[in-house]
Design goal:
Elements (H helix, E strand, L loop, with lengths): L8 H8 L3 E5 L3 E6 L5 E5 H6 L7 E2 L4 E2 L12 E6 L3 E6 L4 E5 H6 L4 H12 L11 H4 L2 E3 H6 L1 H14 L1 E5 L7 H9 L11 E3 L15 E4 L11 E8 L3 E2 L2 E5 H11 L1 H9 L2 E9 L2 E9 L2 E3 L5 E4 L17 H16 L5 E3 L6 E5 L3 E5 L2 E2 L3 E7 L1 H14 L7
Parallel strand pairs: 9-10
Antiparallel strand pairs: 1-2, 2-3, 4-5, 6-7, 7-8, 10-21, 11-24, 12-22, 13-21, 13-24, 14-23, 15-20, 15-22, 16-17, 18-19
Helix pairs in contact: 7-12, 9-10, 9-11, 10-11
The structure holds N-oxalylglycine and zinc ion (ZN) (2 copies).
Length: 402
Amino acid sequence: MFKRYIPRLNDFIRLTRNIWTVNLSESNVCLKQDKYEEEIKFPYVWLRDNCRCPKCFHELSHSRTILIRHFNFDAVPTKTYVTDELLEIEWNDNHKSTFSVPWLTKKQFTNEAQKNWKENVFKDNKIIWTAEQFPRILKKFTFSNILERDSELLSWLESLAIWGVAFIDNAGQTEGKNQLLAERVAFLKQTQYGNVFRVEAKPETTNVAYLSAPLQLHTDLPYYHYKPGVNLLHCIIQGEEGGENHLADCFAVAKEIKEKNYEIYSVLRDTNVIWSDKCYEDGRYYHSIHDAPVICENKFGEIERINFSQPQRDSQFNVPLEHVNKWYNALRAFSELIYSPKYSVRFQMKPGEILTFDNLRLVHGRAEYNGHRCVEGVYLDWDHIYSRIRVLRANYSYQKKK
Ligand code: OGA
Ligand code: ZN
Ligand code: ZN
């Protein structure tokens, strides 16, 4: 005789909910979901440090407020309780913490969870390109759409983050359009060339960009420790002849050098070059200096910033005598590649177009020209751009395109 199975309330809950159990190991709180084998472990000290109670944490500002000198580094849980939503912990010093379980699962100390955070919350993965790929990766936006639609603003900023370049058209031929874009993101980045700079041939010029001669491939302001992250160049008037812009993705160039000739790569990465700019603008004298390699890596060995400017590389060169020739050899290899047809792209902007690009990653330049040409430039900073991307994504629960 089989007993008829009558489902009970708990069985339904089990079907629709995640059933969690909690255990304590020597120094971790271990959570386990019934349908998975793996435990998710959180060290006691980390949980206590991230207690969300009002004594430890100020919710509105998302900030930890517990004074570090009052923090109990040795707190141990005495009681734990978990549901599918909450983990409650009572500590041996009479403190109580409550955590959201979905929140905790995102903070797991696993490579996968941390990679997910890095790519989806921290910064988008950059995708490098060659000249051949350029027409496909170059995204085009319309000026008024970016001003009016948050989704368009976000797409523009994502394109900049991923490809390091994007085009905006229909901006008209009046000044001040870059400022509107910059304010739409956050703030203009001020430099010694002002909030806004006008690139046009000027008599008695104080910068070689303000000649009608060719402007070699370069990054702007390598002589700043806090070099501007992004350039916006609005073509207001194009010259009668010439004036084409050049671009190359130096992250792609550096990757090729690293793979084909590690010795040259390491010279470019390890040699501190002195970058400088000395003159005056609007009656204000400046003398800016920064020393940094052409290829700057972060602590994970990822390229973080490229510095390159033939005019702004100082004659002061603080390396041992026997290193000088090695350096010039590496400089030759780098220069040849950024100008090679494999990496270098050229196009002529039309009046009303705005070229936007990552100044930490791309080199840019301009061909010589005849006639009157006028380009208005402003800078943005990556800190503000990434902040804006995160806020826009959160506000609109935007699912990132892969
Ligand atoms: C500059 C510059 C580009 C241009 O002024 O630094 O890169 O198109 N200008 O004139
Ligand atoms: Zn607390
Ligand atoms: Zn420039």
